[in-house]
């Protein structure tokens, strides 16, 4: 049995053939959008539709939508310069289904040099909450160290998210 080219299959399917140009247009718009919008806004927004020369963008919250609203005239102009006819942009607030911190959990690591510096500082302090906190951080950093794992070096210590 010969394998068919995916493009030939998609073009021949009755229901899918009409969706292909729209999907290609959305991919093109998203590619252009990634070049036009700052990274901070890009992480919290996405192009979801294009119909009747209007681009529909979902923003994660109203603050992102407000910032994008300020960029709307420039975006329309830049889309047009890229060869896509856009006469308007509609912004909608659509909260993320799963919170961002659940998607990318952070695991802070204290470097060996950082632990030594904090330990030296703690030894110079009188008994206090600050000294206890520093000793705890050093102990946590020492418990995270595994044999054979490279030292994170000069990377800054990132604060752990608080659990409630």
Strand and helix layout:
Blueprint: H1 6-12, H2 14-17, H3 20-36, H4 39-42, E1 45-51, E2 54-59, H5 62-81, E3 88-93, H6 100-103, H7 112-124, H8 129-144
Parallel strand pairs: 2-3
Antiparallel strand pairs: 1-2
> Which percent range describes the beta-strand content?
5-15%
Give unreliable regions as ranges.
Answer: 148-162
For the biggest β-sheet, the strand order reads 1-2-3
- For the report, how would you describe the main beta sheet? 3 strands, mixed
| Coarse shape | elongated
Tally of helical segments? 8
Helix content: 40-55%
Characterize the structure shown.
Strands 1-2-3 form a three-stranded mixed sheet. Mean pLDDT is about 80; it is low at about 150-160. The chain folds into two domains: about 15-100, 2-Layer Sandwich (GMP Synthetase, Chain A, domain 3); about 105-164, no CATH class. It is mainly α and about 160 residues long. The protein has helices at about 5-10, 15, 20-35, 40, 60-80, 100-105, 110-125, 130-145, and strands at about 45-50, 55-60, 90-95.
Summarize the structure.
The protein has about 160 residues and is mainly alpha-helical. It has helices at about 5-10, 15, 20-35, 40, 60-80, 100-105, 110-125, 130-145; strands at about 45-50, 55-60, 90-95. The longest helix has 20 residues, at about 60-80.
Question: Main attributes?
Answer:
three-stranded mixed sheet, 2 domains, mainly alpha, GMP Synthetase, Chain A, domain 3, single chain, 164 residues
């Amino acid at each position: 049995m010969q394998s068919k080219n995916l493009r030939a299959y998609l073009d021949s399917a009755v229901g899918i053939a009409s969706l292909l140009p729209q999907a290609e247009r959305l991919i093109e718009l998203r590619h252009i959008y990634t070049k036009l919008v700052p990274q901070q806004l890009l992480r919290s927004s996405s192009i979801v539709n294009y119909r009747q020369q209007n681009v529909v963008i979902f923003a994660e919250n109203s603050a992102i939508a407000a910032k994008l609203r300020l960029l709307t005239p420039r975006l329309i102009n830049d889309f047009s310069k890229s060869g896509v006819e856009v006469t308007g942009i509609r912004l909608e607030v659509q909260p993320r289904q799963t919170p961002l911190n659940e998607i990318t959990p952070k695991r802070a690591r204290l470097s060996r040099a950082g632990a030594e510096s904090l330990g030296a500082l703690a030894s110079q302090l009188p008994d206090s909450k600050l000294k206890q906190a520093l000793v705890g951080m050093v102990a946590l950093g020492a418990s995270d160290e595994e044999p054979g794992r490279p030292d994170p070096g000069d990377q800054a210590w990132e604060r752990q998210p608080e659990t409630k």
